[in-house]
Design goal:
With 798 residues, the chain is α/β, with parallel strands linked by helices. The chain is 43% helix and 18% strand. About 1% of the residues have low confidence.
Length: 798
């Protein structure tokens, strides 16, 4: 091994220098200029040239440079206008960059020159387990291998040069006379047009044989590319000649047809007329299409409207005018498919089956009225709204069409563009029917609450006609211009927020609430559906990966915080991907098996992301636990109140919305009105400040349901009485202390149970809602209905 040497270095961008190659390049960086000047001061003018991995880095460090570079000798150094320099260098030897530092403004490199290990060394190394070759035999083998590699490289380079005329013949002849394989490799690599990354691969070869293999692979690949390009060029020329011949023949044929009074349009018109005879439609539609075909016949072939007219007629012929599929009117089958694809959601399934039953009965009685109301599934993301619609389509044997309305702002997306515009097309409803091929598909209007409005029209208003059973019998698409019968289409819409749907549109649909999943429901969904789906998606067998129920519960509680199961599915997929990698790294893949438990779960998913809310360990003054509803499920709010000397001001912090601020002020007004009853000093509100804070200040909060919670916390702080730590409450407060009902009760109770709270106060009017909540959630909860603040105060204080 050669000794380490120290010399100035230049980091090259997009350039690799090889031994034996003479070239020039320009430098502009100050470090590079100083390094060249320093090299010129030496006796031999030596400098180390190494390429950067990323050409965009202006000030590279050691990690930004390749390990192997080239020791070069500066032949000439010229200063250019603008402060740049042009350097003429000659590559001498390869060297490894051991270390580098910046000294006096330039890069000083510590390098170790590399020895060119020849082919025989490799052969000897590959025979470590055998008896060593004699020196004479080793030299003979080395000579044979070296001669073979030399000849192969020369022949391959000649073939390469045949495809690239820019390679000078004199250079090819000079390479053919070279007898040193290492020098030939450097000469060829340095003088053919290759990217610096490929040249760097050749430079970094450990020995001559490896560098030879790398260069052979590069040349073979370049030859293959050149051969394909040559074949493509020949094929293209042949095709151009063929097209020119066809063009002349077609022009001659056109002239003959014009002389005979025929045109190209005639043949296409006959095809369209044949299609018209085969479709099922009313006489009115058939007459309209026939009229358009007649108009198409009379058009000149050179008219710009020919293509538009042909496209319009083809669209009319592809519409399913009277073509319908035969529905499967078996409610038991529908129930079985819904239960197979979805766990839980009993109320949703029951309502869907009722709707299907009504459709079946009305179809049997052949009534002309709308078969059933239009359903709108409303719920948080990931709760299975879209997949329910797909299951309903399968259960009824209907064609399934999904129309995404998220972000759609143009009315023409629904009604279509008028044919006067270039590039006009039917609306999404007409396109959905065309795609389905029948007039009675199931059409899912996804994310209907996110349909927007702008200057081009109101999308939701355009949907009014579509979703009205009295009007959609003759829905008019601006492009089609013929009334479409949508009365047999089963429309199902989905939304995350029902309040975001305009009132007239919401009035045309029956809202079905798809609520959040409980932890137990998520566990069953994961084990029955998601886990098997991800195993198949990631190429794993059932025996190769097992996730225990305890581990799955830990994934649900510690790595997801959502109403649905999308995040849960992503985490299961992450576990499957890590298991797939372990399987490939395993030497015996046939016997591979992984079991994920709570103890090793963090190896697959990392540290736990979410810690469940926990109740306070002891009763505290001025701190009350409230319950809130969010778009991703329920949550608990710990409301804190402090009383301090002041002038009677009220501070509200924690990113409260206007409605929540008004609830806080209402609660304080109520407390002031009953101050004497609870022995609160008359000067408490004039000489003391009240500060109400809700932690997690970065999260916006709003709504009236925390009214009784804030009022209780203020009373606790003023009287010094502690509130039960095991208690949570929700309800809107009025100025006279009445407790009004709230929404999202299921999610709020679920959040309280997760936090370990067992006593809950809710408005008395909400007690009836408990009948629709599963026993799984209610088990272990002591729920009390209250109708006034007096009852709240009586039960809240310790």
């Amino acid at each position: 091994m050669k000794k380490i040497q120290h010399m100035p270095a230049v980091a090259l961008r997009g350039l690799t220098v090889l031994p034996g190659v003479v070239l020039h390049f320009d430098i502009s960086r100050e470090k590079s200029k100083l390094a060249c000047n320093q090299a010129m001061k030496g006796k031999k003018n030596y400098i180390f040239l190494v390429a950067q991995k990323d050409i965009n880095i202006t000030d590279p460090d050691r990690d930004d440079l390749f390990d192997i570079g080239c020791i070069a000798k500066i032949r000439q150094l010229i200063k250019l206008p603008g402060g740049n320099m042009r350097v003429l260098v000659e590559g001498l030897d390869r060297a490894r960059l051991e270390d580098m530092s910046v000294e006096e403004g330039y890069i000083q490199a510590a390098i170790r020159p590399l020895e060119n290990q020849d082919s025989v060394a490799v052969i000897v190394n590959n025979n470590d387990d055998r008896e060593p070759l004699s020196e004479e035999l080793s030299q003979e083998v080395s000579g044979i291998v070296g001669e073979a590699e030399l000849r192969q490289l020369k022949e391959l380079f000649k073939e390469y040069a045949a495809y690239f005329p820019r390679v000078a013949k004199t250079f090819v002849a000079r390479c053919d006379t070279m007898m040193d394989l290492s020098k030939l490799i450097d000469e060829i690599t340095g003088n053919i047009p290759l990217g610096f990354e490929l040249k760097q691969r050749v430079l970094e070869g450990e020995d001559v044989s490896e560098r030879f293999v790398v260069l052979i692979q590069i040349l073979e690949r370049e030859i293959q590319i050149a051969r394909v390009r040559s074949e493509l060029s020949k094929g293209l020329q042949t095709r151009v000649d063929k097209h020119q011949k066809e063009y002349i023949l077609r022009e001659q044929l056109q002239f003959i047809r014009e002389e005979l009074g025929e045109e190209n349009v005639q043949t296409e018109a006959e095809e369209l007329e044949e299609k018209l005879n085969n479709i099922k439609c009313s006489d009115e539609v058939r007459e309209k299409i026939a009229k358009e075909i007649k108009r198409f016949k009379n058009m000149s072939t050179h008219s710009g409207e020919v293509a538009m007219e042909r496209s319009y007629i083809e669209t009319l012929l592809e519409m399913p005018w009277d073509n319908r599929s035969k529905d499967r009117n078996n409610i038991k089958t529908a129930e079985r498919i819904l239960d197979r694809d979805h766990y839980g959601l009993d109320k949703v399934k029951e309502r869907i089956l009722e709707t299907l039953a009504v459709r079946v009965l009305k179809e049997k009685s052949k009534t002309n009225e709308s078969s059933a109301p239009i359903l709108c599934l409303v719920g948080p993301p990931g709760t299975g709204k879209t997949s329910i619609a797909r299951s309903v389509a399968e259960s009824l044997n209907k064609k399934y069409v999904r129309i995404s309305l998220g972000g759609v702002r143009d009315e023409a997306e629904i009604r279509g563009h008028r044919r006067t515009y270039i590039g006009s097309m039917p609306g999404r409803i007409a396109q959905g029917l065309r795609q389905a091929g029948v007039k009675n598909p199931l059409m899912l209007l996804d994310e209907i609450d996110k349909a927007g409005t702008d200057a081009r029209g109101d999308t939701s208003s355009a949907l009014l006609e579509v979703l009205d059973g009295e009007q959609n019998v003759s829905f008019r698409d601006h492009y089609i211009e013929i009334p479409l019968d949508l009365s047999e289409v089963l429309f199902i819409a989905t939304a995350n927020d029902a309040q975001a749907i305009p009132g007239p549109l919401r009035d045309r649909m029956e809202l079905i609430e798809v609520t959040s999943y409980t932890a137990n429901e998520k566990l069953h969904i994961a084990e029955r559906h998601l886990f098997a789906k991800q195993l198949e998606k990631n190429g794993l067998g059932k025996k190769e990966l097992k996730i225990t129920s305890a581990a799955m519960k830990k994934v649900i509680e510690g790595y997801t915080r959502e109403a649905g199961v999308r995040g849960l599915e992503r985490n299961i997929g992450k576990i499957c991907r890590k298991a797939a990698r372990l399987k490939l790294e395993c030497k015996d893949g046939n016997s591979f098996s992984v079991k994920v438990t709570p103890d090793n779960l963090e190896e697959y998913l990392g540290k736990i992301k979410y810690r469940p809310d926990k109740k306070n360990e002891e009763d505290m003054v001025g701190i009350v636990r409230g319950l809130a509803w969010t778009s991703v499920g329920g949550d608990t709010l710990e409301i804190e109140v402090n009383i301090m000397p002041g002038k009677g001001s009220i501070s509200l912090t924690g990113q409260m919305g206007d409605v929540m601020k008004e609830s806080a002020q209402t609660g304080i007004s109520y407390i002031r009105s009953v101050a004497d009853k609870y022995k609160i000093s008359k000067t408490a509100f004039s000489k003391q400040d009240v500060h109400i804070h809700i932690p997690e200040g970065a999260v916006p909060k709003d709504g009236p349901s925390a009214g009784i919670t804030m009022a209780t916390a203020v009373l606790s702080a003023l009287t010094g009485r502690a509130v039960k730590a095991n208690l949570a409450m929700t309800g809107e407060i009025t100025l006279r202390g009445r407790v009004l009902p709230i929404g999202g009760l299921k999610e709020k109770l679920l959040a309280a149970k997760t936090a370990g709270i067992t006593q809950i106060l809710i408005p008395e009017d909400n007690l009836k809602d408990l009948e629709e909540i599963s026993e799984e959630i209610l088990e272990g909860l002591d729920i009390t209905g209250v109708k006034s603040m007096e009852e709240v105060i009586e039960r809240a204080f310790a």
